[in-house]
Amino acid sequence: MSDTTIKPRIERVPATEQLVQKLPVLLVPVLALAGLLAIGNPSTWLTLTVAGLAMGMMIFIMASGLTVVFGLMDVINFGHGAFVTVGAFVGFTVLAWLAGWTASPSVLLNLSALLVAILAAMLITGGLGYAFERVIVKPVYGEHLKQILVTMGGLIVAQQMIHVVWGPDEMHLSRPEALQGSIVLGDAAIEKYRLVAVAIGLALFLAMRHILKNTKIGLLVRAGVENGEMVEALGYRVRRLFLIVFMTGSALAGLGGVMWGLYQETITAHMGSEIMVLVFIVVIIGGLGSVEGCFIGALLVGLLANYTAFLAPKVALISTIALMVAVLMWRPQGLYPVVKAK
Amino acid sequence: MLIKLLSGDTPRSGLLAVLLLVILISLAFAPFLFPGTRSLETAAKICIFIVLVASYDLLLGYAGIVSFAHTMFFGIGAYGTALALSTTGPTYGSMIWGTAAGAIVAAVFALAIGLFSLRVKAIFFAMVTLAIASAFAVLVSQLSWLTGGEDGLNYSIPREFKPAFKLVDEKIFDVRINGKLLLYYLVFFASLILFLTMLRIVNSPFGRTLKAVRDNAFRAEAIGYRVVWYRTTATVLSAVMAALAGSLLAIWLRYTGPATTLSMEIMIDILLMVVIGGMGTLYGAVIGATIFILAQTYLQNLMGVAAEATSAIPLVSTLVAPERWLLWLGVLFILSVYFFPSGIVGRLRAGRT
Known about the structure:
The complex is a heterodimer of chains A (342) and B (353).
Chain A: H1 15-22, H2 27-39, H3 42-73, H4 80-97, H5 99-103, H6 107-137, H7 144-166, E1 171-172, E2 182-185, E3 188-191, H8 192-214, H9 216-226, H10 228-233, H11 238-264, E4 266-267, H12 271-286, H13 291-311, H14 316-330
Chain B: H1 2-5, H2 14-28, H3 30-33, H4 37-63, H5 70-88, H6 92-117, H7 122-142, H8 144-147, E1 153-154, H9 179-202, H10 205-215, H11 217-222, H12 227-253, E2 255-256, H13 258-261, H14 264-277, H15 282-309, H16 314-319, H17 325-339, H18 343-350
Antiparallel strand pairs in B: 1-2
């Protein structure tokens, strides 16, 4: 008997190919640099870049839930925008109740009011996500056409219910005292709220990456994405995992809604469906189902939208479409396509 | 002769045949049966939407493609005619070339979108078209020097179609035979011809291949059909039909703006009409469009009565308020996707046996 052991053979991906795979990471700095060259004035550029990053982070928060839900469950939720709107309305209502906290000059009280509003919004949209999954999405797993139609129907109903609960008028609210105004850095004025948005978005991205890459839940989610049946066979309840992911995705939409609403300071029942266009573009650019791709896509869209809004206002929304077309020409499945075993 | 006109696609259900006949007769004699401006407006809208919804069904029901860019093509047709009429004056010539130009531009757009993105998954295509359509709507409202922006375009149509024009002096059955009536019949017959053309298309070998591609694209490809080619052709055909419906709307309203042609609400309305009427059968478009537009126009009055009656109960009265009619339609929509995936028409046909 020979005692040679059989070793698994791992094929090394050539360095050049690895580089090509990682290439999209470079897009954000390249775009920022191009923006600097086109704008010329460094302080204007800094203001626009921070604004773009903040916008990108907020879009990322809204898009991340959608893309993870798609990656794991193969469900596209056209009603995702409704969660964004509901989150914004709940957040605004809570902040209006806490007017004493938001108006006080104490930074701590301001931030805790924001935190309470965000938690309430996430709780409610998470619960709504539970109901949505059980009632609307569950019967149509695996049927894309019906998913699109049914979630669209859910969107209509949810939008109308917002009218019933909050009335047809738009709501205005100023940000908490501490988040108003801007910091002057050299010649560039940077709104404080944008810095908060960047911080929250970045923290969320890092947390999601950590959970997906390093924890058991993340392992199960990734395995479920690759091959749900296999995970089921190993004794894990994939369906329950689906439900948790769906609720998390909805709660993230609620968070995004509060943040976007405070950014605009005005919310309407249609804000969710309006922002969904950008969210879809981001999800497509990133490659459906990929968190990293979604993050890069969101930053690209945010930066490009702000740069073009400054350089050539009329082409701002068209520019994001052009970006999507360009990315799809380069990588037809998006920046980081999620390869499914199905 | 009749069978041939319907391309062999008979209603195949007694009740459905009766319903269709009632709708046809009501629309054909609408000016005489339902006098009044509001009912004539409703009838013309039904005619135009039957064409629009049928053209969408060509895509959704027969080819299994979910597109959110259908109002874009509708808008292209409408703006084509509107621009021709407002720049070169109210002549038949400009009406015709505007309509043709709109249809050609719509076909080119559809070809580009189709070749570019039909190879991908249904979900992907739905999202791409949604993004493109919303960008187009923004573009139209931004280019105000050309399109009039949010205000849209007002223009004149040939004299013979204006209410002031009198064909005969006496009234027939108490109805004045004026230009408005002529215009209604132009809309009616154009819609009828377009509808019969689409019926012809879906019942041709091409239509049958589309269904094969819809049901199993992989197998259709395997037996030698170029799936992408069929899907793209379906997209182009439906875009041209939608553009023609848009031209009819432009001529009828003498006004074209983003709200009447390009808004997301119209896209959702079309989706609701197709699903409630029945996907994959053009008669579903007739039933769906008629029911929906009647509900839109008259259900609100009914709900107003209901809201009055329940005004003592706080939540219920808000739920049945006239503005909330779309809520109930949304609920109906979800229920019909689950329980009647083939819509009213499919239900009626299944119940025949």
